[in-house]
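Regression test case RT-17, inverse folding.

Input:
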């Protein structure tokens, strides 16, 4: 397992953050996703043999949020 952190723009509320985390956790290869509304960060624990950081970014983009960086 590996962990990656993305900074997001556009999180409107804590519920939005929770929903984004649930969407990520439904992806094959994602073990855990924690989206923190206060910091605008999402921490994803994933299996790189199953899903890539680029694929995780695509899932985030489909939720309507913009990634402004990593870490």
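Golden output:
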């Amino acid at each position: 397992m590996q962990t990656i952190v993305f900074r997001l723009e556009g999180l409107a509320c804590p519920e939005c953050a929770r929903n984004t985390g649930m969407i990520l956790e439904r992806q094959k290869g994602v073990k855990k996703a924690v989206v923190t509304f206060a910091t605008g960060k999402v921490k994803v624990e994933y299996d790189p043999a199953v899903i890539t950081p680029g694929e995780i970014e695509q899932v985030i983009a489909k939720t309507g949020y913009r990634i402004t960086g990593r870490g």
